[in-house]
Amino acid sequence: MSLTAIAWLLTYFYLMLRGLVNPVFISCAYLLTFYAAPQFWWWGAAITSLPIRWNLVTASCLAVFAFLGPSEKRRLGTADRFVLLCLGLYVVNAFMVNSTLAANPVRSAMEFDTLWKAGVLALVLRFVVLDIKGLNIFLFAILILSAYIAYEVYFNGAGKMVRGRLEGLRFPGAFASNGTAILMSMSLPFVAYFFIINPIPYSRLFAFLAAPFILNVVLLCNSRGTYLGTAAGGLMMIFFARGAARKYSIFIALAGIAAFLFLARDAQIWERLFSITADAEEREASAQSRINFTFAALRMVQDYPWGSGGGAAFYSERGFSYIIPLGQKTPRAAHNGYMNIMAGWGIQGFSLLIMAVGTSLFALVGSLRRLDPIRHTKIAFLGACIIAAIFGQLVSTCFGDYLDGEWFLWLTTLALSLSSIINKNDHDELENSLCLTGQGALHDEVEALDFEHGEVVSDAMEQEVTLQ
After folding, report:
1. Distance between CA atoms of residues 297 and 193, nearest Å
2. Which residues of 290-329 are buried (b: 16+ CB within 10 A; e: fewer)?
3. How far is the CA of 177 from the CAs of 41, 217, 381, 409, in angstroms?
4. Opening angle at CA 79, ends 77 and 81, nearest 5
């Protein structure tokens, strides 16, 4: 067994033991089984040989420990209940479509198996991330594991370059260059959060060191959708931030642009970027085929609006018939997450999923509007970063079949959790909790007010003595 495998096991059991007290650490162990799934890495053979389904065991333990402890903290708001209802109906709808309408029953059953487990995990995660400390731990785990992926690529040569793109990395529900890019880009807003706010000891330093390596992996994947998604996320971060938090966002956006220009020295990166806005005559074959396949999937949805089962576009005979006229000789993916969901689980399934994501966004935005833009800049910036991550993924999935990725449901749940945390807690206390000492700039401001008050009282007492 390699040292890396031993380190993986030690980390896993350490997190599970910590999870006996705080279940959020079990969720971090689950993230470990996702980002660093042993079956996909060079060091994993010794671990996978053990008769344990690490992912399933971890999720099961998380489901048990999530509902232990005080029930008051698990009280749900209106938005929480509506989102969880939508996700529940989304899973039920998928079950019905898979059971009665699947054009490719084998493929659809596999997709449904992943879908319902992701839905249950989202429900459980909402009852695990209950305070700002737990949210910070979960986000920092995403950052650490993304940095580990970047470490493997940069120092151990993980993956391989194929036609100018990083291929060969695999994750549950994501693979190839597009999947790697969309998953790694999700951590970029959280890099910004930990660098600016530094809520955990040394998290600013870690984010500063990890940022160029994570961004470099995104560039190596050379995914047009991820470029657009990252840009959209940056714009949304600026738009939804207020007060000093907007200044943070603008600084991060400028720093990101500078880092991109410094790292993007490969001509193929610029060629793919420029192909996004090229006209029909100049557009490369790959970009044009994505558009053609999207319209083919749309025609399939028009003919079968109730859905054709998971993976039906275009891994079923029904779906394949729509791309044969385009000269396609083998089944392939639709490469558009929205079309993939609509063709697979129907317009009704797509609507339920979008309502869940949209409601969580509206709930978080509404909660952020209640904050004082001057006094509560840290918590406002955290909210802007989560919103940026969600929008980045929503745009990126226009170029890949990843709208059904479980990380979308993670982000949906995290948005709900932060909204609930803001609504249920004193905003000043939340702001202070994001400082390492618990007494940040806000504490200094209060102390200054107390000092001024003390001087006023002292002066009044002196005047009273003089009069007497």
Report:
1. 38
2. beebbebbbebbeebeebbbbbbbbbbebbbebbeeeebe
3. 16, 10, 30, 21
4. 70
The answer to whether the beta carbons of residues 334 and 290 sit under 8 Å apart is no
**175 pairs with which residues across the strands?**
170
Q: How many CA atoms lie within 13 A of 414 on its CB side?
A: 28
DSSP codes of every residue in 136-203: HHHHHHHHHHHHHHHHHHHHH--SEEETTEEE--EETTEEHHHHHHHHHHTTHHHHHHHHHH--STTH
Q: 5 with 43: CB under 8 angstroms?
A: yes
Task: Quote the strand ranges of 324-435, DSSP E.
Answer: none
- CA dist list (Å): 347 to 55, 190, 280, 339, 353: 31, 32, 30, 9, 10
Q: List per-residue pLDDT tens for the chain, 468 residues long.
A: 889 999 999 999 999 999 999 999 999 999 999 999 999 999 999 999 888 899 999 999 999 988 876 666 678 889 999 999 999 999 999 999 999 999 999 999 999 999 999 999 999 999 999 999 999 999 999 999 999 999 999 999 898 988 888 898 988 877 788 889 999 999 999 999 999 999 999 999 999 999 999 999 999 998 888 999 999 999 999 999 988 899 999 999 999 888 888 877 766 666 666 565 555 554 555 667 778 888 999 999 999 999 999 988 889 999 999 999 888 888 888 888 999 999 999 999 999 999 999 999 999 999 999 999 888 999 999 999 999 999 999 999 988 888 888 999 999 999 999 999 999 888 888 888 887 644 433 333 333 334 344 443 344 444 443 444
Q: How far is CA 161 from the centre of its chain?
A: 25
Sequence ranges of the domains in the chain:
1-69, 75-433
Q: Which residues contact 63 (CB under 8 A, 6 or more apart)?
A: 120, 124
Report yes or no: 340 and 376 within 8 Å, Cβ to Cβ: no
Considering only CA atoms, give the Rg of the chain.
24
Name which of 377, 368, 365, 364 is nearest 245 in CA terms: 377
Q: Which residues, other chains included, contact 343 with Cβ-Cβ below 8 Å and sequence gap of 6+? A: 297, 300, 301, 304, 307, 308, 312, 313, 319, 334
